[in-house]
Amino acid sequence: MVRELGKLDFKGTWQYAAAPESTDHVQLGDRYDLFIDGDFVAPAAGKYFDTISPSTEKVLASVALSSNVDVDRAVKAARGACRVWGRMKPAERGKYIYRIARIIQERAREFAVIESMDGGKPIRESRDVDLPLVAAHFFYYAGWADKLEYAFPGKRPAPLGVAGQIIPWNFPLLMAAWKIAPALACGNTVVLKPAETTPLTALKLAEVIRDADVPPGVVNIVTGAGETGAAIVEHSDVDKIAFTGSTDVGRQIQKALAGTAKKYTLELGGKAANIIFEDAAIDQAVEGIVDGIFFNQGHVCCAGSRLLVQESVADEVLGKLKDRMETLIVGDPLDKNTDIGAINSPRQLEKIESYLALGRTEGAEMYQSSVAVPDTGYWCRPTLFTGVSQSNRVVQEEIFGPVLAVQTFRTMAEGIDKANNTPYGLSGGVWTDKGAKIFHMTQKIRAGVIWANTFNKFDPTSPFGGYKESGVGREGGLHGLDAYLSLG
Ligand code: NAI
Ligand code: MG
To answer: Which residues line ligand 1 (CB under 6 A)?
Structure first.
């Protein structure tokens, strides 16, 4: 983690200067309507809800609450636009997507600040991780638009039609890009619903789409909560559902879609093992553990939320990890020195805190950094549990916060067993200086992505998705195209 400037205090401890990001260039309206058929339109029932900043608890804007009527209107617009978009020359489609990518790059600072305000993530992450990846996704899929026949030789790739897309609050704009870019490249049109706590960057993206002159109806953005999402899932004229969120809602969606012709991809939860062998470069591994679980407050489906450390180095790793946790700054998401921002919502904080209590009830020992946290807003200090057993709920269940469960192992086989022993299979990490060990582990761990000597690295070219309860289907790379095409 790179730091901004600061100074040594009289004890020789480095004091980081507060470095708040300016919000001057950010223009937020008081109220946001729905983006349907190329225009911002009021919701039929005239209802709105507030989105707040989880770090200040202040209302940022009010946002339209879509009813079934609005969803139906959006789906009709998307269906109508299929004629234009689906039949457009692929290279032309690509040009529009490139244009979206370029405008996002131009407005990246503004987008990063709004993302941090609305969702609570540190500005350093939204600026240096989310926004570059958002643009990269649009650039990458723009490039595929006129090469689909090369991507699937011998097939006749055709768009599916209208894609209903429901996304979560942990990477709001990035998840919108993951969903919209491949759908458009393949000639589909879109009805997208952002999460209710983080709708603002998706609505700003609607402005970008309008400014890029994308034909009306190709992308429609409807805001609202679970009921709006369910209305998209249940709409009879939607051809494909793409969902990222909780395993519970994923299950409900799967049930709702059973027996229908709709295609679907589900990107659900995780409980990844980050596995440290005794021959690993320990200092780098400690940074990888920190990045794995504390990045984005641990609101990451592929977070390394279980540390599996080989017994012979467990004391050393834990000692260094605790020291490092003490240095992490929790606070203002707009401060460039902040490492851990605000927990996304009071509901999510309640969930995390219930797991902190549960871990102790289960007999685990809790260690929390002593860092100060602000008085207003929703915060959780970096936390770890030791003395856990495999069956403990803090080891098995997704907490989705800055909370790490620590276990040890002796042999490689024991490490693999423990890594695989949860209902999830989304990601994993292996730290060792032996290539052979990396190959062995990556073959034996059932997870969609396994990082070696790094963690949480993303790239639009590589597929992403899970086994078991982590989901169905893949996004990213060529696999991400497959999910939006019929290959007759
Ligand atoms: P959620 O699954 O309820 O929300 C995700 C999205 O689904 C939101 O846009 C929401 O409005 C929508 N939604 C909710 N109910 C729906 C329904 N019945 N039909 C269609 N769409 C619906 O997740 P929530 O409640 O915000 O978070 C709870 C837990 O879920 C977290 O603590 C975390 O463990 C997990 N989660 C996992 C994510 C991931 O990236 N895999 C992202 C967000 C949450
Ligand atoms: Mg918000």
So the answer is: 166-168, 170, 193, 195-196, 225-226, 229-230, 233, 244-246, 249, 252-253, 267-269, 301, 348, 351, 398, 400
Q: From the alpha carbon of 194, which atom of ligand 1 is closest?
A: 9
pLDDT digit string, tens, across residues 196-252? 999 999 999 999 999 999 999 999 999 999 999 999 999 999 999 999 999 999 999
Distance 51 CA to ligand 2 centre (A): 4
Active-site residue identified among 267, 397, 398, 475: 267
Cα–ligand 2 centroid distance for 439 (angstroms): 42
Helical axes 108-119 vs 131-144, angle rounded to 10°: 120
Question: Among 331, 317, 297, which residue's Cα sits nearest to residue 456?
Answer: 297
The structure's pTM equals 0.96
Spatial CA neighbour of 438 closest among 429, 448, 449, 427: 429
**For the segment 395-439, what is each residue's pLDDT rounded down to a tens digit?**
999 999 999 999 999 999 999 999 999 999 999 999 999 999 999
Nearest CA owner, ligand 1 atom 14: 226
In the prediction, which pLDDT does 14 show?
57
**Which is nearest to 307 in space by CA: 356, 281, 272, 274?**
274
State which residues form the domain around 365. 273-459
User: How far is the C-alpha of 123 from the C-alpha of 331, rounded, in Å?
Assistant: 11
Q: What is the four-CA torsion angle of 109, 115, 120, 123, rounded to 10 degrees?
A: -20
Same domain, 172 and 231: yes
Q: Are 48 and 226 in contact (CB under 8 A)?
A: no
In ligand 1, which atom is closest to the CA atom of 270?
41
Ligand 1 atom closest to the Cα of residue 399 is: 34
Residues around ligand 2, an ion, CB closer than 5 A: 51, 118, 197
- Ligand 1 centroid–CA 451 distance in Å is 25
Q: Domain containing 356 — which CATH number?
A: 3.40.309.10
**Ligand 1 pocket: which of 169, 171, 246 to mutate (most atoms within 8 A of CB):** 246
**Residue 232 to residues 67, 199, 220, 295, 438, Cα–Cα distance (Å):** 10, 16, 12, 31, 42
Same domain, 277 and 246: no
We report the CATH number of the domain holding residue 175 as 3.40.605.10
Question: Is residue 267 flagged as an active site residue?
Answer: yes
Q: Which residues pair with 306 in a beta bridge?
A: 273, 405
**What is the domain count for the chain?**
2
pLDDT in tens, 315-374: 999 999 999 999 999 999 999 999 999 999 999 999 999 999 999 999 999 999 999 999
Q: What is the pLDDT of residues 438-464, one digit of tens each?
A: 999 999 999 999 999 999 999 999 999
- pLDDT number for residue 1: 46
